[in-house]
Amino acid sequence: METQRHAPPSTVTDDGRACSCSTSSTSCASNTDPSQIASDPEILFRSLAGEWRARRTIRHLGSKSKGVDGIFGGTASFYLRAPTADEPEEGMQEYLYHEHGTFTTSTGASFPAQMKYIYRYHPMSRRISVWRVKPGASVAPPNAGEVENWFHDIILTTSSELQGSAWFTDYRRAGDCIFKGSEHLCVRDLYKPFYKFCFGGDELVEFGIGYEVSGPGKDYTSEAWFMRPPANGLSPQM
C-alpha cells in the first residue's frame, strides 16, 4: 500500500513559521501568542500519513511498577483507509497505525515488538480520536485491525497554559507545539497522553507521543519520537 510521504500545507504563524496545534492544553515555542495561532486538526491529521522512524523509551518510576525499562526502535506507518465505524459521519477519515521493530531492555535482552491503534478525524466536532485495536491484529496485514475500545481524544483549543513541559526535552526546535490530550481511565489505570508536533515549512517533520501511566500495579512513562525516513534510506539520527 503506497502511503503519502509529504504533509499538506500547515498554518503559518505571524512570524512566518509553520505550526499546527490542537488538544486540551497547548503551548508553542514561537514569538506568537498561542491564542493567535490559526490551527486546523484536519491538516494535522492528514500530515500524519505515511511512514516514520520511531524510537520509544519506557521508564518505570516506582517499586509497584512491575514492567521492564527499555527502548523500542523501528518503523511506524499511518495507513489511510475507509472508515470502519458502524455509522461514520460524513467526511470522517481513518488511519490504521502500525509500528514494528525491536524492544531492547535495560539489561540488554531484545525481542521483536509491534503495536496497532486506529486514529479517526471527526469533521463535525473537529477532533481526532485514538482507539485501541482488538487482540489478534498483530497477525493480520499491517493495514488491518478492528476497534476494541476508545483510548483518548485530541481536541482543538487555543489555551495558553503550558502543560507537559517536562516532555520531549531532548527534542526541541523552533515553531514546535507541545500539548496534552484527554485523560483515559482503563479499569484502574490512568493514562495521561502528551503530544508534540514540529513543522518545517509546510511539512510535519517530527512529532512525539508520551504517556504517563499510573495505577495499582503501574507507574511508568512512555515517550516516543517520530521522524520521517531520509530519502537515501539511511536511518536518521535520533
Query: Main β-sheet, in a few words?
Result: 12 strands, antiparallel
The secondary-structure element order is: EHEEEEEEEEEEE
Helix content: under 10%
Structural class: mainly beta
CATH architectural label: Beta Barrel
Query: Spans of 5+ residues with little confidence (pLDDT < 50)?
Result: 1-38, 158-162
CATH topology descriptor? Lipocalin
Please tally the β strands and state the result: 12
- The residue-averaged pLDDT reads 76
Number of domains: 1
Distance between the termini: 26 Å
How does the overall form come out from the CA principal axes?
globular
Tell me the fraction of residues in β-strands, as a range. over 45%
SS element count, helices: 1
What's a quick, concise take on this entry?
This protein is mainly beta. It is about 5% helix and about 45% strand.
Describe this structure in words.
This protein is an all-beta fold. It has one domain (25-227): Lipocalin, CATH 2.40.128. It has one helix and twelve strands, in the order E-H-E-E-E-E-E-E-E-E-E-E-E. The protein has one helix at 41-47, and strands at 25-28, 50-60, 70-81, 93-105, 110-122, 127-133, 147-155, 177-180, 184-186, 189-200, 203-215, 218-227. Strands 1, 2, 3, 4, 5, 6, 7, 8, 9, 10, 11 and 12 form a twelve-stranded antiparallel β-sheet that branches. It is globular, with a radius of gyration of 17 Å. The two termini are 26 Å apart. Residues 1-38 and 158-162 have low confidence and may be disordered.
